[in-house]
Amino acid sequence: MTGRTRTRFAPARALVQALAYLVPSLLVFAVFVFYPLARNVQLSLYDTTPFGGLSRFAGAGNYAELLRSGEFLGSLRVTVLFAVYTVPAGLVLGLPLALLANRRMRGIAAFRTAYSFTIAVSIAAAALIWEWMFDPNVGILNYLLSLVHGPRIGWLTDPHWALPAVAATTVWQSLGFDVVVLLAALQGVPDELVEAARIDGSGQWAVFRHVVVPAISPALFFVGVVATLGVLQSFGQIHILTQGGPVGATNAIVYSIYRNAFFNFRFGLAAAQAMVLFVLVLAFTTLQFGVFERWVSYG
Amino acid sequence: MRVKVTRRRFLRAAGAAGLGAAAGRLRLPNVSAQTPVRIAFWHAMGGNLGDTVIRAFVNTFNASRKDIQVTAQFQGSYDDLINKLRASLGSSSVPAVSQVYDIGTRFMIDSKAVVPVQDFIDREKFDLTQFEPNILAYYRVGGRLYSMPFNTSTAILYYNKDMFKQAGLDPNRPPRTFDEIEASAAKLVRSGATRSGITIAIYGWFFEQLLARQGALYANNGNGRDAPATAVAYDHEEAGARILEWWARMIKSGVATNPGRPTAASQRAFAAGQTAMTMDSTAVVRSLLTQSGGRFQMGTGYFPKPPAAATGGSIVGGASAWILSGRPPVEQQAAWEFVKFISEPAQQAAWYVGTGYFPVRRDAYHEATAQQTLAQFPQFLTAISELRSSPINRATQGALLGVFPEARQKSEDAIEATVLGRKTPQQALADAARDVNQAIAVYNRTMGAK
Amino acid sequence: MTPASATRASEVAAAAAGRRPARARAVRRAAPRVGLGALMVAVALIVLFPLLFALSTSLKGGAEVNQYPPTLWPHSLDLGNYTAALQQAPLARFLLNSLIQSGAITLGQLLTASLAAFAFSFMEFPGRRWLFFLFLSTLMIPGEVTLIPNYLTVRSFGWLDTYPGLIAPYLATAFGTFLLRQFFLTIPRELADAARIDGASRRRFLWTIVVPLSRPALATLAIYAFLSSWNQYLWPLLVINSTEMRTVQIGLALLQSQEILSWSLVMAGVILIILPTVVLFVFGYRHVVRGLTAGAVKG
Q: How far apart, in Å, are the Cα atoms of B181 and each of B167, B169, B177, B305?
């Protein structure tokens, strides 16, 4: 809060003037965020017709059905597991690639382009490419496995492999974005810091661990957060690769809501699902704030 | 009421202000006398052939008529299509005519958003005598034909004759029963002819067909044809569990492989010579012949049944064309003209030889293209013989269920859980039945069906 | 929380971008260059393998694609899949739709977010904290919650299957507002005080001083907005019905059909669809990185 030099405008007039700048955003939020939130609460308390109309007040009926079916708890589990597979993997693979791309040598531009190439590949395209590679009979992955006498894996049909397979697709597709962000951060690490640490006699690893990582921690945090948000929105790859199967192994929360709302046309039930998710996200966000924010250093 | 209108008007105004609605496409129906009536036809016939054949139909039709112009719009899978359609009902984006799969029939009728083709048939005294009786039996509800059968199919068995020979099986006698399939598959694997005796996609339609092959009902109240169904029936009878037991047993003993749900995966496995047998719709005869690229001799046989089953038969699958009431009468009439056109012998024959879907009417077989193809590829005949040998009864007429898409999904869950060894057949079917019955209850309640 | 870290990430990165670090050259010189070079090439090939394999598949003719073992190189170059893919789907039209959608969303977000961020950073008015919190609260509401009601809203507007339906819900962004606000706050107050005379000159101040100064932050937001709307899958799937209104992602998924499937055809479609973004990326790489580094202009 700088500049406590006071305006001479009456508060009401100041508000009106400010609103002129805020109204475009507020209007969109009102129509497409706040109104839907309220509407969603309402939907979740009703039986709905297949056309989205309200049919009968159901009270907590939809919520009760959710907990009873077990499908919802399953989808929460899948979502958490999916985050466990994708978020760290993005960092663990993205950082080495960014480090390699951060080297200064002839032709490095080509490598930078290659390592961050998947930023140009949409998730739908990525999913189709990987679906083809995952083909159990004529796909390249099982063929490569067979060369080393590995088993033939039903990548998308075996409940143990399906989620890792979808996760691999996701990580590959987002790798390009991760590399770009991390590379940008690495290029921003002040040389003096690194030199100073070296003069102190620190080894390469120590420099990396104690100087570079803290310096780029905001970018690491950013990549992690974007990946976490991505998990909550992972739809395209699931829709294309597994449709939530087998036996619900990839039935992540967005997919489950989509199916209930737009396939089974149980809008009320899906709205209840979304409400529970909302509460969980709120809780998680608060938690994440507390844990991670402390670790990140904003020098 | 007043409040609602006001709010909606506010939102609309707000939206327009925020965006400049000019960017939106206007979709006003053009009904003036000089310009042709333009109608949209939604369909789910993707892939090289399906889409190409449909496009050819539309082009031929448009060229032959000055007064009507049809635009074909591919909407994805059958599931995607009905969901899109359901979402568009009551909005301005509803098409004049749409293909809807067999199991969407009950919902389409209940939606009250359609004009039964029976209305046009009665008005024009349209002649149905050439139509296959089994097909009409499926699509007639309460004696009325609501939609025009368009692409019809049954499920058949495909097998690799070369592998059969190699395993010492008779390549001209495909297995007909559950036991024969299991025995053949075992022999195929044991002989080293293949690693997979049979590959069956987890497709709920096969489950429905296998029930009907045993003469068993899928839903109560005469498969929902005597009165709206209130529950599924497969969890009480032996027929359902028998199918799952057989299926899971073959997977467990290693003679069958599980390609997951998409039939495309089992088709690829079969075409690539990775499995000796597969089950699929007759609609892919042409595609499998092409994809296999002449690498092996492909045989076709009837869909299996348990040895003892006597009263059973096949259900007509595929889809029909529906005329939507959300469009002005002039467009409805135009839709009817198009619907009539695609059911004509010439189109039905072209469709038949291009895909494998059999014609909805018998005189289509007299067309020269049909004759030629049948002479060259007898595989095209299997499905229609299978259908004609099926008695018409409640089981083979197929179930009518408003929540059939969801129900099919649940039966796929049940099959999957069983073949993956997660549940017993009985448990899996009971779980599926519980979920589906709940969905039926909600549907009947909210749609006001009794 | 996301915007905060994003901003800080870019700020930290910005702090040092533009320098040509000459760090630790000695160490790098000592490194076994050839081995590292080989490693870098290998890594690049692994990262790009799915794309190369898709390219190879797209050139395979009819039955070759289902051959086992799969061939790495096509026996004969068959461009038939490309013509077939183009014939089967109006890919150019899909690209145009995506361009319109993503372009409009990007421009819209830049506009609404600049206005709102300006109010939050340069204006004093009653309820400012409260309104800012209201903005941020939209970040806590997952898209799943608003999905169903928004669909019903857009349908009641008659916006199904139109550009407004695709675009309108995404015209405001709390994330972007936050991002820009953080940046605006770094602009010296004195500039603002000097310019703060009346409403008209305030507007001029925004457009002639703040916006040009904030180009890096605006570029970051633009790239982020463009990429995320380009990759949208679920929303276009719901609101678009007709072939000619489809975006690339949905159009692509339609090449994958229910009963008949030719991988070579699908891969041809994939290659065609990613081509524009790949070209954009390869030629715009510098700008992408600069945008995400958001650096060099300040001070």
A: 14, 12, 6, 10
